[in-house]
Amino acid sequence: MYVLKFSNICALISVSDEYEIFEFLEEDNKSKIVEDKIERAILRSQMDSFSIDDDEFIKRYRLSKNLVLELCDDLRPFMTKPAKFTDLSIETKILIALSFYATGSYQRPIGDIAAHSVPQQTVSAVLGQVTQGLNMPQLRSKYIRFPRDAAQRRANILRFYNKFGMPGVLGCIDCTHVAMVRPSQNEERYYCRKQYHSLNVQLICNADMDIISVDASYGGASHDAFIWSNHPLKAHMEDLSTNEAIWLLGDSGYPLRRYLMTPIVDAPPNTPEGYYTDMHVRARNVIERTIGLMKARFRCLLVHRVLHYEPHMAASIVNACVILHNICNKANVSVEELQPEEALREYELQQLTTPRQDSAVNSRAAQNPELREGITVRNNLIDRLWTSRSAT
């Protein structure tokens, strides 16, 4: 009996036969893809995330159900509407993105959640769509608001004074590092002193831990003071401070200016300077708590989670998380605190400011008129605080 070898069979197949086989396999593959989409759509319809317990919903997505629905309304004009049964609803897209922001998990496990039930490439596409929507100017201006007029500034200043006893404070400023993978271009701009690649994100908050300004455009190699010196708000604060007793609070890594008060690192206790510094540190601590709260809510920002994106997308994710933080904060949504080991790990991987001794500040004042102005304003504030303390 003569048996054809596989090579003989292949030789007998014509070009047209090969084309027909290819078409058959391609159609079969398409059918499997369609079947998979239908199965996933059916699974999603059977596992409604909005039906789970409220506390579990917040734990999974960080926002309450009502806040998610309001966010859907905000993002709807910027999202592709579903056209067929297998398309993802806007609600599902937003929940997928929130799940990533909340955990920083890899995309495949997020897609495997039954209520999401999408492949990894879909998670990636959805995350891009939602992040882009949250970065639209309309949403940024709605949820991240630096005081725009005298009445708003007075409200911010009064809130700081009532909570911390510190007059003239419009906000507190600091930077935090958000780790990312090594970028394909300009790698040296993103390599920080802690020996990982990051964005150095500048944040300003108010007394209630709302973030009123964010700049995530600089790499980890940039110093906090450099980022501030190139920020548009610096010129705005300079203009305001010519007519108003108004300032931000920053740590000793920032330059002392009439609109930016810094602590006196070497101030002796039980002195006017020591009292001022204690008051300054207590009030400025609100920015550190704000950063900690935001990262506890949206753990994709934790240094050890590492964003696997190029700088522009990583910065957009940071901006999105700032908006979501403000939404949660205003609604007083509960948040699960970081475990002590997580908090310690984050602290160790952040770049700490080297304290700038005040004697060094004073020695440079003769050559720097802006610094001299800052010293004068700070001395007046020290006297005011000490006098009010003595009066009480």
TrEMBL record:
Its main location: nucleus. Transmembrane segments: none annotated. GO terms for cellular component: nucleus. Residues 173-326 form the DDE Tnp4 domain. InterPro entries: HARBI1-like, HARBI1_dom. It holds the Pfam family DDE_Tnp_4. Signal peptide: none annotated. The keyword Nuclease applies. It is found in: Nucleus. It comes from the Eukaryota. One of its GO terms (molecular function) is hydrolase activity. Its cofactor is a divalent metal cation. PANTHER family: DDE TNP4 DOMAIN-CONTAINING PROTEIN-RELATED, PTHR22930. Belongs to the HARBI1 family. This is DDE Tnp4 domain-containing protein.
